[in-house]
């Protein structure tokens, strides 16, 4: 019998190594997972709409195009995921991460949020729909290990 591969969507903050830490920890634990994520190169993500579909004179429409082109990937990845992990960092406002968390919740996806304790109050509504609120990537790995294998 083939072991089921779980799809884990990693959304959010792009300026630290949290995705790599989760990926490495999952590999070390031997978890049957596939990680997917939005495009994490900031410039590529911002410019994809105008680079593919043509320039815009107004920044609003350039951003609008980029958001829609990025949504082609984001929606599919979120919808096919078994678990969604959303990381909120303290350096930048991650409106897209909050949107991903809300979309995942609306889809009924298992949601894990990941953030430092000082963001607990501003993220209380997001955290209220998460099945777990982690503070470190290592906690996320342990949550995945428990969800997938039922082991501590």
Break the fold down into its secondary structure elements and pairings.
Layout: E1 6-12, H1 18-28, E2 33-36, H2 42-53, H3 59-80, E3 83-87, H4 95-106, E4 110-114, H5 124-129, E5 132-134, H6 137-149
Parallel strand pairs: 1-2, 1-3, 3-4, 4-5
Helix pairs in contact: 1-6, 2-3
Which key phrases capture this entry?
single chain; Rossmann fold; 50% helix; 5-stranded parallel beta sheet; alpha/beta; 6 helices; 152 residues
Structure explained in plain terms:
The chain has 152 residues and is of the alpha/beta class. The protein is built from six helices and five strands. It has a domain at 6-38 and 80-149: Rossmann fold (3-Layer(aba) Sandwich). It has helices spanning 18-28, 42-53, 59-80, 95-106, 124-129, 137-149, and strands at 6-12, 33-36, 83-87, 110-114, 132-134. The chain has a five-stranded parallel sheet with strand order 2-1-3-4-5, sandwiched between helices. Helix 2 crosses helix 3. The radius of gyration is 16 Å and the shape is globular. The mean pLDDT is 94.
Uncertain runs with pLDDT below 50, 5 residues or more? none
User: What's the arrangement of strands in the largest beta sheet?
Assistant: 2-1-3-4-5
Remind me, CATH topology of the domain at 6-38 and 80-149? Rossmann fold
Order of helices and strands: EHEHHEHEHEH
Distance between the termini: 24 Å
Rounded Rg: 16 Å
**Count of beta strands:** 5
Note the overall shape. globular
Q: What's the CATH architecture of the domain at 6-38 and 80-149? A: 3-Layer(aba) Sandwich
The major β-sheet equals:
5 strands, parallel
CATH level-1 class of the domain at 6-38 and 80-149:
Alpha Beta
Q: What oligomeric assembly is this protein in?
A: single chain
Number of helical segments?
A: 6
Kindly report the average pLDDT value: 94
- What is the helical fraction, as a range of percent? 40-55%
* SS strand fraction: 15-25%
Q: Which class best fits the helix and strand makeup?
A: alpha/beta
